[in-house]
Amino acid sequence: MRFQTKGAGHRAVLVSSLSLLALSAGGAAQARSEEPSTAVDQVVITAARTILPASALPMTVDVVDNESLTQQVAISGSVIDAIATLSPSFSPTRQKLSGAGETLRGRSPLYAINGIPQSTPIRDGSRDGYTIDPFFVDRVELIYGSNALQGIGATGGVVNQVTVGPPKQDGVSGRVMAQTTVGNDLGDAVGGKLAGLVGWREGAFDATAGVAYESRGAFYDARGRRIGMDNTQGDVQDSKTLSLFGRFGWQIDPSTRLDIVANRFELKGDGDYVTVTGTAAAPTDGSRATRLPTTAYRGVVPGKPAQGRVETVSASLTDDDLYGGALTAQLFFNRSRDTFGGDRNATFQDTSIAPSGTLFDQSSNRSRKLGARASYERAVPGVEGLTATVGLDALNDRTEQLLIATGRAWVPPTKFQSLAPFIQGNYALLGGKLRLAGGVRFENVELKVDDFTTLAFYGSRKVAGGNPDFKATLANGGVVFEPAKGLRVYGSYAEGYTVPDVGRILRAINVANVDVDTYLAIEPIVSNNRELGAELKRGPFDASVAYFWSSSKLGQLLVKNAGGIFDVQRQRVAIEGLEVNVKARTPVPGLDLSAGYARLRGRTDTNADGKVDTDLDGANISPDRLNLAADYQTGKWALRVQMQSYLSRGMQSALVKDDFEGYTVADAFVRYQLPVGAVSLGVQNLFDKQYLTYYSDTTLPAKDKIYAGRGRTATLGWETRF
Question: What residue stretch is flagged as signal peptide (predicted)?
Fold first, then answer.
């Protein structure tokens, strides 16, 4: 069992076609399950719109419940860091605002809030891990592997953040939290957070509103050196975050509910530090040759500091007793604006504007989504044991990337429209011991790009716009067999779908006479995932093992160009992996031990001969990992100690030939219940291990801009409910 503290997270399997339609954002099902979930079946029914138990579904899902999530956020400060710590096959984070290169099973996951996608696949700004404050997240559902019915982008899996539910009883309730964080320096490393949530319920109506504000200081490594800022992509250190949350519900009748959920999240860099890399005059400021990480000094950052803003509004209607089945319908609006830091990068230079090497610029991604989803599920009349789900998803996405200092378009306004009906069935045989599951999704996509001209760096090429469209039939199927109580084995096949980072491809066109309608590089990525798994839940043991392999004929790789900007290359990609997780209750009351291991290998085809021949590098696959943890609860005390060991890997056969040395870090958490509220202490990197982050250690061999990981960092917090 993964992600579990005592009485906390639970393990489940979920068929690849279950669509996270934000059902946890509202609905009668959620209203009935507001009590803390102790059975994963209850959670899956809410989040994945199915009336079936978890044991009926043949794919892997991990659920991080509120207790586990609270612990991890107290240690690391964010949802994405919590998930990356707990899941062995999730790559270690960059500890920056950008999540580029962070993968699940070697592929990009789809981040969602109540099922609403937060990604911008047309021009991936890689900020989708920071779109809501964790104070407003009740639990996180992590779905592994390619999954077409999650919508566009779920080739590696889905990270669905389920927000807090409505109040349980009539009257006023809420909670308040305050915390402070300190690093190796008690000056500019100090940060703080205040958050509050108030709920009201009266009869059929309820409302919840909250605000969270956080100020982060500078980060320091284990040697007491300030960690370099990523002034271009964005950093979470030296920043301020304001998050607003609201939820309004109406229980129309006993089976029908309307929910409106709104969230606004903004993270702004303060711009107080300038990153310095090694030079002949100052070799101590960062050097890859000596593995001395980049540092930062106080100074004025030119232009606007990097920042991100996301606004999401959804309306969900659920009826769990409509003609013998369950209906869920949702409308949503999502808008994001990501500003990146600026510089005089070679890519931005244009001698028609300023002399070469003198032109300063910075970019901003702007994306707007409008979507609708609906599904209906019920037992099929006249066919005992057969349950069917039918649905329809629609999405309209408009994205562009502007150079805001000069008013140029780096990526032209690009529209993406998708209409996708689907059907899914689950058939129980032999009294439910054997189940067959399968379904199909019909994806209809149109991309619209107007005529545009690329930047001078790419030759000021005139590109003819167009309306390329793609149609795909995406299938999935699986079998679940339960030969004995507590033992399950399953196998599944699922196809996932996404578009490549179209913006990167379009902006990098450097040849003449290109017509978008016939440009091969914007064809979609279809990945398939095959998985075999087994679970044992008997007595004090909860164990699971899964082996998977996935491939895509026309995949997507990030490759750095001469200007230091990542471009997209389309190549065949094949990935395989093994995941093992074990948890055991010990004879000592309240003490649980757990372990997790993941081994991943990936290769790509670099010479277009149809055969994979080169290993994936650190920007495209995570390292092997071993997780160990111990949880102990007694009386008013709760304690956790955990370790993550990222294993070394030789990369001389990879795209980027920069070996990974590996490192091991440990964290600790303790919580004590007070007469009023509870006080907690989370410590990240308990033994103050000095290391380089995986991403910067394996993807930038020709650059001295490398970042150390955070040294020992402590967060003291207090929280109470009323």
Answer: 1-31
